[in-house]
Write a structure and sequence with these properties.
Helices cover 29% and strands 24% of the residues. It is an alpha+beta fold and 514 residues long. The protein is globular, with a radius of gyration of 26 Å.
Length: 514
């Protein structure tokens, strides 16, 4: 009787397990079995900033996801290397000729030649004003595997600007480039849900070697704690921008790794020069002196950062040799007094009957920035400045579209993503710059930038950039806080992969999983 009962229990359990296996779910995160018995390899990456589009001419995820590629790229030493272009030559001050590799195809099998590259650049220049402004291309001509560019003026930075992800080469005949771009990378788009998920499958005809993974999923979530939990539970294999305060349990897990590498990015306070109070250099300098960079590195970043003395990482030879600005609230109060502010009976700073009240915008995509905002709010309150913090979802669109609503913002940007600071001078300081929502307009910086744009000699370029950094320190149009480390969590099943300081190349053909 007992034997019969046990047999019946085992039979029911077997049926139950069989049903579970047929449900389509699997505990094996490495993938599912293919018809021939081999196991498909899959990987999930979780990123902080959602992509509304994966148009490679509009969004960096085209290159980051391994969908599209540029003519040239930078290596781990920030040196420019050939990519889709096997070679290039500068004929004169305004003429460049690139030779495109043979054997490269788009994801629909179409060969990549000079005409295809020309068509891709024509579209990029049309849909992306920032690309058009930085490349300064007057005309292009295709001839077989060659394409020539003639620029409107001397543009020695052209090669470094061609590293930019938005100069990717795509097949312009694709039905919908915003959702199904046809690039040349190791992975092609299987499905895309705006601001939610990218499904990728390997492109078997990839030109630069075998693709190890069969499938990749890229998910997006702006909540740093949710991202950290996804790594711990195995829902994601690679997670970008982990909050420093969430690292302890991850570092204690023997199956997880934390990669912390110094980045080319800077976290800073962006001032709105449209606002009268912030047009006063003494007010900007006072706010700058309320920033305790040492505390920001040690306590907010848990040591995962480097104090900033300006926009560029101190390892660059054009970063300037000045020490970071000292934390000095007493000097800050004195500067505000010079600017005409007096302390009223309520302990608040006041000028012409108006309290010094500022709105500070921040965002959750980089979880340390709201903490910096709160810290600055507290320091400002100590000397009588009232700072109101607002948290927004889309920081870039907010800063440009709501310029009357904010006074300062915590912000973060790659200042020398291609190893040359000329890019940042153009986009962040020139009046028409694409990263200048604060409407900075410093004549001396404008002149230096204009000269930098036509200077090819490297020593002269370094000298000009150092001059520019000195003026930036003197004028304080922004307050540079620290250069954050890129904190990435990785499951140890991921092989042949590590994050790069340039933040450009996430998904590659070489990465693999166990």
């Amino acid at each position: 009787m007992i034997k019969k009962h046990v047999f019946m229990v085992l039979a029911v359990l077997l049926i139950f397990l069989t049903g579970c296996n047929n449900s389509g779910e699997s505990e094996n995160t490495a993938g599912t079995a293919e018809p021939n018995g081999t196991e498909e390899k899959s990987l999930t990456l979780l990123y902080s900033f959602p992509s509304k589009t994966i148009d490679p001419h509009q969004d960096a995820m085209g290159v980051r996801a391994g969908i599209a590629e540029t003519l040239v790229r930078i290596d781990e030493n920030l040196q420019i290397q050939p990519w889709l272009a096997e070679s290039w030559e500068q004929i004169d001050e305004r003429t460049w000729i690139f030779t495109i590799r043979d054997g490269v195809t788009f994801h629909d099998g179409t060969a990549v030649d000079g005409e295809a590259v020309k068509a891709s650049f024509e579209r990029a220049l049309e849909v992306n004003n920032a690309v058009a402004s930085s490349l300064k291309i007057e005309s292009m001509e295709a001839n077989g595997q060659e394409i020539s560019f003639i620029t409107t003026e001397e543009n020695p930075a052209l090669i470094s600007e061609l590293v930019h992800t938005n100069t990717s080469i795509v097949n312009v005949s694709a039905d919908d480039i915003s959702e199904q771009p046809l690039g040349t990378g190791p992975f092609q788009v299987a499905d895309f849900t705006s601001e939610s998920e990218i499904k990728l499958k390997k492109y078997n005809e990839y030109w630069d070697g075998a693709v190890n993974l069969d499938e990749v999923t890229i998910n997006f979530n702006s909540d740093g704690n949710v991202r950290a939990l996804a790594l711990q539970t195995g829902e994601a294999d690679i997670v970008y921008h982990l909050p420093p305060e969430a690292l302890d349990p991850i570092e204690q897990d023997e199956n997880l790794l934390v990669e912390s590498i110094s980045s080319l990015r800077v976290h800073f306070l962006l001032y709105n020069n449209k606002k009268p109070a912030l047009q006063d250099v003494n007010v900007r300098k006072a706010l700058d002196m309320l920033v305790n960079r040492e505390i920001s590195v040690t306590e907010i970043m848990n040591g995962h950062g480097t104090a900033a003395n300006g926009p560029f990482h101190p390892d660059f030879n054009f970063a300037g040799d000045m020490e970071p600005e000292s934390y000095d609230p007493e000097r800050a109060a004195a500067l505000l007094k010079e600017a005409g502010y007096e302390t009223n009976e309520n302990g608040m700073l006041e000028k012409d009957g108006e309290i010094l009240e500022l709105t500070l915008a921040t965002y959750q995509g980089r979880p340390e920035l709201p903490l910096m905002a709160q810290y600055i709010q507290g320091e400002a309150a100590n000397i009588g400045i009232d700072i109101n913090i607002i948290t927004v979802e889309e920081i870039d669109s907010y800063l440009w579209e709501q310029q009357d609503e904010w006074d300062l913002a915590t912000y973060s940007v790659l200042t020398a993503p291609r190893g040359d600071g000329g890019y940042f001078f153009n986009v962040a300081y020139m009046p028409e710059g694409s990263l200048n929502p604060g409407q900075i307009n410093i004549p001396e910086i404008n002149e230096i930038t204009a000269e930098l744009n036509v200077t090819a000699n490297e020593e002269e370029r370094i000298a000009l950039k150092n001059m520019g950094v000195s003026i930036i320190r003197e004028e304080a149009p922004q307050s540079y806080i620290l250069h954050p480390h890129i904190i990435v969590g990785v499951n140890d099943r991921v092989k042949n992969w590590s994050p790069g300081s340039e933040e450009y190349y996430f998904i590659t053909n070489e990465m693999d999983v166990e």
